[in-house]
Amino acid sequence: MNDRRPSSKTHPPGLIAQRMILECRDSAVRRHAALPPEGAGNVATGGAATAQRIVAEPVDPIDRCAGIAPAGAKEGIQRDDDGYRRVDRDPLPPPLPGRRRPRATRDHGFRSARPAGCASPVATLPRPSGAPEEPTGFHGAPRSFLSRVEASHRRCRAGARMPRFIIAIALAIALTPAASAPAIAQDAAERPIVSKEDPRPIVRVNLQPAAVPNPPLKYPLLPPYLEQTEGNAAHLYRRALANWESTWHAHKTLRRDIVRWWETPFADVPLDEARNALKNTRHILDEVDAAARRERCEWGLSIRGNREIVALLTPESLDARSLARLLTLRARLQALDGDFDGAVYSIQSGYALARHVGEIPLLVSSLSAMSVAGLIAKPVEEMREMPGSPNLFWSLAALPRPLIDSRRAVEVEMVLLHQMFPAFREARTASRADDEWQVVFESEMERYRKMLGMMVFEKRPAESDGALGPLGDKAALGLLAMNAYPAAKLRLIERGRAADDVERMPVARVLMIDIADTWDEAVQQDAKWYHVPPAEAPANDPRRRWKKIDPDRDFAFVTSIVPAMQAVRGAQDRLDRQIALMQLIEAVRHYAAIHEGRLPAQLGDIEELPLPDDPITGKPFEYRLEGDSAVIDVRDPTSDGYGVHVQGARYVLTIAK
Amino acid sequence: MNRHCSSLMTMSRGVYPLGALTASARKKFHRSQGDHVPTEGVNPSAPECRRVAASSSRRLVEIALAIALTIAAVPATAQDRDERPIVSKEDPRPIVRVNLQPAAVPNPPLKYPLLPPYLEQTEGNAAPLYYRAMLLWEMTRRNEPHRLPEAEASLWLDVPLNDFPMEKARATLRRAEYILTELHGGARRERCDWDLPLRGNRDVIRVHSADVQVSRSLARLLALQARVALRDGDHQAAIRAIQTGYAFARHLSEAPWMMSAIVGTADAWIISQAVEDMRELPGSPNLYWSLTALPRPFIDMRKAFEAEFVQAHQMFPAFREARTASHTDAEWQRLFEAEVRRYGGMFRRDRGGDDTARAPLQDKATLALLAIQHYPTAKERLIERGWAPEEVERMPAARVLMIDIADTYDELTQNIVKWLHVPYWQAAGHPERSNDLKRAALSYGNAFSLSELIPAFDAFRVAGLRLDRQIAEMRLIEALRHYAATHDGRLPATLDDIEDLPIPTDPFTGEPFEYRLDGETAVIDVRPPVQRHAQDGKRYEVTIAK
């Protein structure tokens, strides 16, 4: 183990989790991308490790975040080239000891068929000798979060909700940038917390006073219009990513180093090695710089109309973080050398990269884009402590809000079921013979079974047949359908269909329409809150906890792939808060510069600049002066719409003498 | 008053926004200006519109549009606007009476999306279909003017839904079916790339805008289609027309061009009339969540602002390049003269070939005198901005002037544009903003004036925000419908009583709208934004239909 690698304790809360999840996802991509084309079965060919699939990965990310691991599952832990632990499971998890199988007629196959890793009691991941101590909990997270995770875990075991839902929340939280966990490097081992009762970390910032420049937008943080060129950025990004693949394979430690350096206080970064790394990757960053200055970015992914969209690989968004780390490294070195124009140029490329990645209309890509933006904030946060660095108040103010807009991704994910299984939706209007309806229904359920086996169980369909219960058994499916029919019929009538029409419909058609309607209800009840800004209904507004579909309802499992859109909105808002916080601290720098190095007694004293409100609460940040220090308290609502607690932070600002 | 302002006022008298104003608002506006009241004030084919659009004074048209959209705060609900009461003489905000049909929010809540849903979209570029619709409209209008009675169609939008001339309207829609087909198709394309010759175009100010302005006629056509469908009780068809109209408005604004963004804003206003009509119709769906799901801002002007605020650098690149370029003294002089002459040709010619204005630019000696006159102050400003005094002393006078022009332009525009990124309620009352126009006074006599190169950013922003406020008002009123439907037809005593729906805030203030219950009438007071005319506000008086 390289002793330079920072211990897990040195990372701000969330960053460990973020890295672990993303590396885990990287690992999954690599693992699956290496599969032979036939390896994934006949539904999701070509490796079948998609972003969606990674989101659907049962427990890895959340277990790693929370220190929860399936002790019941046989695991082998090994270390890859990057020094990260990988967990390989047996193909099929063992049966649950002492767990009683529910009634056969009510068993959709999702209770007994728990996802791999959801089977066992909560336990701590075993640690290989010599490995750094792994977190035993979500860093700094209160117990409530862990209990939530455990509860989710239990629900997952019970088959009430599919893990994709939970994992997406975990991703959204873990990918949350430094609003609550600033990217600025500190010796976290010694980082104090506010108090035992309020375990928010204290972040100390020693500011260099600097007035806002004139012209005020002299240092734009996105490529300015006159520097943009015509053409599509996506081609250049893909070239850069291909070059990155070959480069880091040629320089084995490079990938690990840039992760490590990003996390390390700059004073501890070996400058010669860092400069050498940049020299070896200059051709990559040239492509990224050019791409970031293209006026449009069309990824050309086969998303629209793709019935197997969950099998779509999106390495563009996942590996963009490596490019972001390279850009961050370059910006930090440029700032260290006093080349602030150069540093701003690198930051421009980084933020443009984040926004371009965010244009992929998939939620997981939006989350990756937020992660990229969170990484790029690091040099911005470091520069404020460097003498001679420009004040970026207006530059930050001019960034778009939201910086990463997930609207298009939400639109796509809202119709995920309809796109993947169009027959459900078409059943509302299509006209077929009775036996055709039955054939179509069975065919779609068969496709669903295969897809689910791939998404959730990571198994080829044949392997997961046993786990999928009645969906893998035609007779059992028929029985399930007959059981579900009366209630489905009633729901159709409740939703406004003529009772006579419904009575005349074949059973299969009734079920298909009910599935489509159930999906729309579930997904829209969640999606509608995505569009409500926190100022109108804060994240902990109880109304956001929409009435979920009864998991005991037959065929309610279709809602298991409903994306966690509110959680994504939460991540989006927290990214905006990170920017607002940076802006606020730049305003304090400005005040100090024009008031002989003094800090404002209250925010109202900063008369020259319009101060941003906290985008999550819609209210001003809490600020007070304590002696020679200014204190900014950043608090999160007690929980977001999913009942997940996200931590805040306390900033203690001083002025450099 | 500088030339910028005077031209703004001049334009606002003659060429104001087509379609964005109701008939009575147009009349009132003209009366207030002491003008003859035109019978057709919003027709893009009106001679004065064509004249202006055909000229290179795009900036002036934009300003006029923005001003008009400012006035267009007058709500579009169907009423006899000439008889619309005002709150009081001291508070001349118009009163808008709305008689609501109670309706609870649907389940699923986004059942009636107001933009084309993802599954209805198709791949490809929307612009060719829109261009076809514009072409077909123009051809029909010119060759068969009887076929599409645009003036009538425009007036029909002001008529209350119950008094609507249905047969005439249906006939018009039938005749325009081939145009509507193109629009519906375009609105459902997943992207819109107008391919306008903007980037790198030194003559960008001369890009013709007449085709974009035709879009207002097309928006009126869509609004007409929606209203006819509403009268027929076909809410799905009405929603489809509204989807097309809103998507068209947003597609227009995707060009990095202020003219497109402003016209898109005007189009969205026109389409919103149909949305407002729906709430008074029995059986019409509640659109609270559909309106909530609309993007905010509805028209994103960021790309247009970005392009516009460096437009002078694009049109006169030599000024900006002077910061770093290297030339001989004679070359600097030649470059300076050439750029100033281009400026004169571009702006003075628009004033009808005013030779007096151009005279100094024709005369090399006069130009040189002008340069010498402004050189000392320009030199001082360069040193103040951080240039080394020795370096500035060594520079030829022409280069000093050119750098000064570029730097001053950046200072002016950026000190204006930065406020666009701040919430309106913070920006509007900030003392620093009052100095903006004073700063804009830099000019070299008749030869060159920076103020002419700076768009009326603030007016554009207000136009966009007003549209967002209109959407927020519609949301609030839909929330009242929901409350009434779930509370035996009663109106809430306070907005807090509407517990199951989030209450929208006023985008101008960030605060909830003022609401009170007065007997059986709910009163919503929409105050005018800071430093804006009272007509920018309104008072809603909402009752529940029995």
Which key phrases capture this entry?
heterodimer; A: 657 residues; alpha/beta; two-stranded antiparallel ribbon; 23 helices; 10 strands; elongated; disordered N terminus; B: 546 residues; four-stranded mixed β-sheet; two-stranded parallel sheet
Q: Calculate the terminal CA-CA distance of chain B, rounded to whole Å.
A: 55 Å
How would you classify the helix and strand content of chain B by structural class? alpha/beta
The number of strands of chain B is: 8
In which range does the helix fraction of chain A lie? 40-55%
Spans of chain A of at least 5 consecutive residues whose pLDDT stays below 50 are 1-170, 176-188, 457-467, 639-645
Mean pLDDT over all positions of chain B: 80
Uncertain stretches of chain B: 1-57, 70-81, 350-360
Give the strand order of the largest sheet of chain B, numbering strands 1, 2, ... along the chain.
1-8-7-6
- What is the radius of gyration of chain A? 26 Å
Global structural class of chain A: alpha/beta
Number of helices of chain B: 23
Structural commentary:
The complex is a heterodimer of chains A (657) and B (546). Chain A has 657 residues and is α/β, with parallel strands linked by helices. Chain A starts with 14 loop residues before the first helix and ends with a strand. In chain A, 54% of the residues are buried. Chain A contains 23 helices and ten strands. Residues 1-170, 176-188, 457-467 and 639-645 of chain A have low confidence and may be disordered. Chain B is α/β, with parallel strands linked by helices. Chain B has helices at residues 3-14, 23-32, 47-54, 58-71, 127-143, 150-156, 166-175, 177-187, 210-231, 235-252, 258-278, 288-292, 302-308, 311-315, 317-321, 329-347, 355-362, 364-384, 389-394, 397-417, 424-428, 436-439, 457-486; strands spanning 95-100, 122-125, 189-191, 443-444, 448-449, 514-518, 521-526, 538-544. Chain B has a four-stranded mixed β-sheet with strand order 1-8-7-6. In chain B, helix 11 packs antiparallel against helix 13 (302-308). The N and C termini of chain B lie far apart (55 Å). At the A-B interface, helix 15 and helix 22 of A face helix 13 and helix 20 of B.
